Amino acid sequence: MIRIFYTIIRAFPAAIAFLHKGHVAKRHPELYSQEDNYQTILRYIEIMKKAANITTVVSGLENLPKEGSYVMFPNHQGKYDALGVIGAHPTPCSVVIDKKRSRLPFADEFVSLIHGFRLDRTSMRSQFEGITAITDEIKGGKRFIIFPEGKYNHNHNNVQQFRPGAFKCAIRAKCPIVPVALVDSYKPFEFNSVKPVQTQVHFLKPIFYEEYKDLTSQQIADRVRDAIVEKIVSVV
């Protein structure tokens, strides 16, 4: 937690500006385009990383489909995960996030700017409606980040089991699935330290609908997890 407060102090003017713009975007979404909001997000992520002594090594950008929608499925390690993936992703994308967590300071403004989807995990009906809505947005060309582990639990570079239900949106939208391997992404905000840390984001080869259409959601989950685990093992 100490790095969070350290970052806010070092980048206080930028933090206030970010909160203001996020507040305006939430109340008046018509004022800013998706591209404008995304560029704002990328700019503030870079400011935050510099203030927090975080660097992120990125590989595999050439694996991202050049056109159309897709869903990225990263492993989950900590609070920096979504920032790490989005900061490495050059074109607009969004994220599916737990509704309760999305209301925290800074997270609320972040989700509003990026037009993230707030999923209520306490209601089965809400989850069903959410999956339908996310699927429609993917079909409409939107790119999403979904964490198939659901949550992190101090697992560090160990990958937990993937929930097959997390893949339903991609399956129904018949879009490419992009595994994303995160390495050391837990380090920035898990330890009480402000020493420089380095994380890694690896975009792996996409799995296209033609490749997974005959697989069960569990088989798809296992295939994506296996690809991520193999990458992590190769670099740590």
Which helices and strands occur, and which strands form pairs?
Blueprint: H1 2-10, H2 12-27, H3 34-52, E1 54-59, E2 71-74, H4 81-88, E3 94-98, H5 99-102, H6 107-114, E4 117-119, H7 124-139, E5 144-145, H8 168-173, E6 177-183, H9 187-190, E7 197-203, H10 209-212, H11 217-235
Parallel strand pairs: 1-7, 2-5, 2-6, 3-4, 3-5
Antiparallel strand pairs: 6-7
Question: Can you describe this structure?
Answer:
The chain starts with a helix and ends with a helix. The radius of gyration is 17 Å and the shape is globular. Strands 1-7-6-2-5-3-4 form a seven-stranded mixed sheet, sandwiched between helices. The model has no long low-confidence stretch (mean pLDDT 91). Helix 1 (2-10) crosses helix 3 and helix 2 packs across helix 6. The chain contains eleven helices and seven strands. It has 236 residues and is an alpha/beta fold.
**Low-confidence blocks of residues:** none
Q: Roughly what is the average pLDDT, rounded to an integer?
A: 91
Report the order of strands and helices.
Answer: HHHEEHEHHEHEHEHEHH
* Discrete helix count: 11
How many strands in all?
7
What is the global morphology?
globular
Residues in β-strands, percent: 5-15%
Helix/sheet category? alpha/beta
Strand order of the largest sheet: 1-7-6-2-5-3-4
Major sheet summary line: 7 strands, mixed
